[in-house]
């Protein structure tokens, strides 16, 4: 397990746990160690102390000590190694802890491939979909070639997106544009992107599971996380989840 604590730790500041995809929840396309460091740094810039842990079962210990959990993990590796990743029994406890935390008022920020994380067992996959308010659907969900794309703010009155974009309620970002995700009817869509003549949700909120979640499909790599508008969006998502009075237009 690797950890990184964002600078500026001080008594009374809010605490976030960033779960970076490692072991069975890492893939060759996403450098979750690097992007999780970017997330922790971005949170530190707005007064949130962040600790990064790799996704091994022990990383889910002590969730009650955090005000926010950020999941920056990937789809399941085809052949996880129990000796390295932990066996299913160890993961039973980890999933139970995360599920209980999320459904009892936990604040959850799920990023990018988190829509396809923790999908290796059907029962947990269903629970994870319920906590996120949506998910990646293998064989249907996709993204066009990464590049600068146009994103539409669908709910400019929401505290997360208020004032984020210009008068046309649009912004551009160089990132992957996730398409054909499965989004629960109860989710509140904040941002979409248009592909093949269809508007696809890429940022939404969800609270039907007993907690409060923001899912944000942006953030493929370090370059994407360093784009100013993307960074502001991430910070506003975290501040809103934490109920911060510092969140303003």
Describe the structure.
The chain has helices spanning 32-45, 82-85, 88-103, 122-132, 222-225, 228-241; strands at 14-20, 48-54, 68-72, 107-111, 134-135, 147-153, 170-175, 182-183, 188-195, 198-206, 212-216. The chain has 249 residues and is α/β, with parallel strands linked by helices. The chain has one domain: Class I glutamine amidotransferase (GATase) domain (Rossmann fold), CATH 3.40.50.880. The longest helix is centred in the middle third of the chain and has 16 residues, at 88-103. The termini are far apart. The model is unreliable at 1-11 (pLDDT under 50).
Keywords:
249 residues, Rossmann fold, nine-stranded mixed beta sheet, two-stranded antiparallel sheet, globular
Quick structural overview:
The protein is an alpha/beta fold and about 250 residues long. The chain is about 25% helix and about 25% strand.
Low-confidence stretches at least 5 residues in length (pLDDT < 50)? 1-11
DSSP helix fraction: 25-40%
Q: Tell me the number of strands.
A: 11
**CATH superfamily label:** Class I glutamine amidotransferase (GATase) domain
- pLDDT averaged over residues: 91
Number of domains: 1
Global geometry: globular
Cα end-to-end separation: 38 Å
Rounded to an integer in angstroms, the radius of gyration calculated over CA atoms is 17 Å
Task: Report the oligomer.
Answer: single chain
What does the largest sheet look like? 9 strands, mixed
């Amino acid at each position: 397990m690797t950890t990184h604590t964002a600078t500026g730790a001080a008594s009374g500041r809010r605490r976030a746990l960033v779960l970076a995809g490692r072991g069975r929840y890492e893939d060759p396309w996403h450098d979750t160690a690097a992007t999780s460091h970017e997330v922790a740094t971005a949170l530190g810039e707005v007064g949130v102390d962040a600790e990064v842990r790799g996704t091994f079962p022990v990383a889910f210990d002590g969730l009650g000590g955090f005000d926010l959990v950020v999941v920056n993990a990937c789809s399941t590796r085809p052949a996880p190694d129990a000796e390295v990743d932990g066996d299913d029994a160890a993961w039973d406890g980890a999933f139970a802890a995360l599920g209980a935390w999320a459904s009892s008022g936990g604040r959850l920020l799920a990023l990018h491939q988190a829509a396809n994380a923790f999908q290796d067992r059907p029962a947990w996959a269903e629970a994870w979909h319920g906590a996120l308010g949506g998910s990646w659907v293998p064989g249907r969900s996709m993204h066009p070639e990464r590049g600068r794309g146009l994103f539409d703010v669908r709910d400019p009155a929401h505290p997360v997106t208020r004032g984020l974009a210009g008068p046309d309620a649009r912004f551009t970002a160089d990132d992957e544009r996730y398409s054909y995700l499965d989004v629960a009817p109860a989710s509140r869509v904040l941002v979409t992107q248009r592909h093949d003549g269809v508007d696809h949700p890429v940022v939404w909120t969800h609270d039907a599971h007993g907690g409060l979640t923001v899912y944000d499909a942006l953030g493929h790599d370090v370059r994407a996380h360093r784009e100013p508008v993307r960074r502001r969006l991430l910070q506003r998502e975290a501040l809103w989840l934490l109920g911060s009075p510092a969140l303003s237009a």
